[in-house]
Amino acid sequence: MIEVIAILVVVFVALLVMDVPIAVAIAVSAILAMLLEGYDPNLMVASKLANGIDSFALLAIPFFILSGILMGRGGMARRLMDFASTLMSRFPGGLAYVNTLTCMLFGSISGSAAAAVTSIGGFMLPEMKNKGYNNEFSVAVTTTAATTGLLIPPSNIMIVYAVASGTVSIAAMFMAGILPGVLIGLLLMTVCYIIAKRTNLSSGEKASLGKIWTAFRHAFLSMLLLVIVIGGILKGIFTATEASAIAVAYAFTLTVIVYREVRLKEIPEILLQAGVTTAVIMLLIGASSGMSWIMTISNIPQTVSQVMLGLSDNPIVIMLMINLLLLFVGTFMDMTPAVLIFTPIFLPIAKALGIDPVHFGIIMIANLCIGLCTPPVGTCLFLGCGVGKTTIARVTPYMIPFFIAMFIGLMAITYVSGFSMWLPRLFDL
Questions:
Q1: Contact by Cβ (8 Å): 146, 103
Q2: Which of 200, 212, 300, 322 is a Cys-bridge partner for 295, taking CB atoms 3.0 to 4.6 Å apart?
Q3: What is the sign of the dihedral through the CA atoms of 49, 39, 42 and 36?
Q4: Contact between residue 106 and residue 116 where contact means Cβ atoms under 8 Å apart
Q5: Alpha carbon 135 to chain centroid distance?
Q6: 330: how many CB neighbours lie within 10 A of its CB?
Q7: Per-residue pLDDT tens digits for 70-117
């Protein structure tokens, strides 16, 4: 078993250092571990790649990706931003609150942190710069706020976790993420408030009730998607997978027919983009399934569980250890493979401590959201720096207070189960 762990870790890290795509790094590590254990990698890798993505629940991922792209192209981000601006811009540092709130709204509707960074950042960063906001501060706000959309449903990573756990309801995960996502968003706004007070950031004009109502009407149809998806799932009208298809139909109708900001001739390009993104995610899922299988066969999850439970029987200590390990993993591994690989390892430990699998899923996702903002594999951070035309070195000092806020939120989510479990219990999920 030690040899398998050594192969998996050393080869994986070495390939990442060599800038090999993460899916390839995972697959090669798994192949070498299978050879060491005496399995035929040709047969097993192909089998696990196929079986890893052979899930009805995973069909929701390409549909939610497609709906997110349609929303990003169809002017939804701008309408949400206008609505948020009428509510928050009158406060000192108001554009920072607008940025955070818009990222929360758009991220929850699109289910994509990357889409939130590029769509919202494209509008907000130039506007904040024109109003005298520090560009690096604005990038830090956008980058961190975009991750809240992975906690507020619908979220692809919640679907991945539900599949990886084997027993968790997607509907329960969706409801469990709402309050933690709002909590993280409020903590980020608190940081914005403190910085605004210290740096005397300007405030905008107070919007009249008429302007607020007009902005709300324009944004209402965009926000209605979230109500349709979550409401339909809770009422049992359709499953999460069926909800994703409905989200595509709704987004298409809204952006092509109602708003008319997406032309029919653009649809093939949008479908291609969604297909490429889906292919990347599915390859990661398939490769990670192979690595998860060889780790399970080698009894690595059981051994790790015994070791950690042997170090302490205090749930607070063990959960802190798990969080620190996941924070470290998040600095170099994308969310999807991290969830697929480490769920089989850490979920049994959480169950042994009496932690609900739904609650643990939210802990894991909230933790790995921080990893999206940290180098060297911080997807949102790289995108934010690209949109803001700056560098990671310049942005990092401004990220620190937001990291602290996100960590405080993570600790609250970890040790106060009510944040995650109140809504699922309320709806008997």
A1: yes
A2: 300
A3: positive
A4: yes
A5: 24
A6: 22
A7: 887 887 777 887 888 788 777 777 888 888 888 888 877 777 787 788
pTM (whole model) above 0.85: yes
In Å, what is the CA distance from 90 to each residue of 24, 87, 160? 49, 8, 40
Tokens describing residue 128: 């904040």
- For the chain, what percentages of helix, strand and coil (3-state, to nearest 5) are there? 80, 0, 20
Q: Which two tokens stand for residue 146?
A: 């975009």
* Among candidate residues 262, 244, 243, the one with its CA nearest the CA of residue 252: 262
Residue 37 exposure: Cα atoms within 13 Å on the Cβ side: 25
List pLDDT tens digits, range 363-398.
Answer: 999 999 998 888 776 788 888 888 888 888 899 899
Query: What is the distance, to the nearest Å, from the Cα of residue 347 to the centroid of all Cα atoms in its chain?
Result: 19
259-284 pLDDT, tens digit each: 888 888 899 999 998 898 888 888 88
State which amino acid sits at residue 299: N
Question: Measured on CA atoms in the order 70, 72, 74, 76, is the torsion positive or negative?
Answer: positive
How far is CA 296 from its chain centroid? Answer: 26
Residue 362, burial from CB neighbour count under 10 angstroms (0-12, 13-18, 19+): buried
